[in-house]
Amino acid sequence: MKFWRERSRRPRLNDDKTSDNAGRSSNFELLRIFAMFGIVVFHIIIHSTVNLNNASPDDGKQYLYLLFFTLLGHLGNHIFFLLAGYFLANKAFKFERIKKLAKQTWFYSVSISLVVLAVAVFGITAQYGYNLHLTFAELAKAFLPIVTGRYWFITTYIIVILISPCLNMLLKKLSKEQFKTGLIVAIGVFYLLTMLGLNYEPNINFNMIGHLLQYGLTYVLGVYFALHPPQLKRRALYPMFLVYAVIVFWALYSNIYLPDGMVISNIRTDWLPFAGAVLMFLLFRSFKMPNIRIINSIAACVFPIYLIHEHPYVWVILNKHILDLQSLMGTRWVYLFPWLSGILVFTACLLIELTRKKIVSIYDKKRLKNLE
Asked: Does 285 reside within a domain?
């Protein structure tokens, strides 16, 4: 179907090959989809009225279950930077990648804000009790989303991509042993500091420099995997996943049931998401998949999906007024909520982006026809 087809003359930011889909394998595209779904579910839970930060033994296993999904969000973030380093290590820098993401970011930031503002003029938001903080400062941020860090993940991603040519050039001058040793030391020191109390949660105490250090290291690891491919077979990964699952369970359990001094990770901001992303990357790298057009097409929409659902006005409406997790606490529906709500939000955002692309495609065709 033409509806699913990307025009080959337009490079896609998050393609493994930026101009031609024909020879692409879909294993990493599927990994992108998995990563973004985890990010969507993570945002649904942390933006809800259920406070997982102060969970106690009295809160029970439902909080333990929901806490697991907060791991997936940061794990998904790391996956995107791993993939960026892996695929950009041996590619020429193209400003078009950044330009396209910046245009997408500006479009959704501005358009959603203007729609909400227009609706607010008619009193609809007030009628339904939406507290959207429609201030001049917030609206100004909508027009400068990258500079103001409205989407901190996008801002960090763009900065890392901007400095990637210099970074790649320097990293290629290192021998394998120099690269490996330096990377191990840098990652070890950074995550040791986080375990000792360095807080780099977004919008709390950690600034953009912290995000650049964290995800910059992940990008560098992706470059290492590209320059020195790991000779690791899939069956060797299974025991690693088993050990990782045990550690994750213990970390979840200790976050709720043990004193603070016994907590080995705070799940979201320590080394566990990073380690999980590396394992998922290695697992999907071992898969051999043909070029599946629908997977590649969905993967091309993951950044717009992020931009739509994580817009401040969207998540206030979704998580405070539509997806009411708090009302389900104590019922069995809690166990289905992350999956069903995640699929619903992911699919809705996907359809919005596909519709936008279809409209743009029709407009471009008419414009070209008029020029002829």
From this structure: yes
